[in-house]
Amino acid sequence: xxxxxxxxxxxxxxxxxxxxxxxxxxxxxxxxxxxxxxxxxxxxxxxxxxxxxxxxxxxxxxxxxxxxxxxxxxxxxxxxxxxxxxxxxxxxxxxxxxxxxxxxxxxxxxxxxxxxxxxxxxxxxxxxxxxxxxxxxxxxxxxxxxxxxxxxxxxxxxxxxxxxxxxxxxxxxxxxxxxxxxxxxxxxxxxxxxxxxxxxxxxxxxxxxxxxxxxxxxxxxxxxxxxx
Length: 228
Description:
Layout: E1 3-7, H1 13-24, E2 28-33, H2 37-48, E3 54-58, H3 64-75, E4 79-85, H4 100-127, E5 131-136, H5 139-143, H6 149-169, E6 174-182, H7 189-206, E7 218-222
Helix pairs in contact: 1-2, 1-7, 3-4, 4-6
């Protein structure tokens, strides 16, 4: 049975590159988005041209019922083996001006969403004999972002979730890792595209059989090494 990957926040940018990288490895893919349905459809069509089945799916990752429906749809494409938690809400706000609503909104998408998706994925990964979860982090957030304290806190929470799940499922053939891109900023569109592909390559490696012994790791990807 063909393996399936679910990628959240996949309608554009890094999410798109991850979807296409996994499609090149022969995985059927679910292209998740909250509201960008037309863009998700475009990414799915790109994946289909690589010879796999691809399904665009609009679902808010903070909505348990919507996530359950998304994973049910994913299972119709084959054996769910990969979850990439890429959905994030980035909203600049100094700590002085940040409201509790701002805090909760970012936490809900970035951390709660990863929890909800992992909860939906684990039974399917277990049923299929194993698989992987990759949580996407970010260099600025992990270093401490003065304009995004809520995002920094959420991303650090993802590190804790990564380590906890890796420990919980190590003996069931389920690997859980995190990828943290740094040095993504550039004025060159070509260089930005190459940097996104470099990050996607690392995610795809962690999703591959070659990485079945790699779990509980936070992998920094220094994209500044890719010159403009």
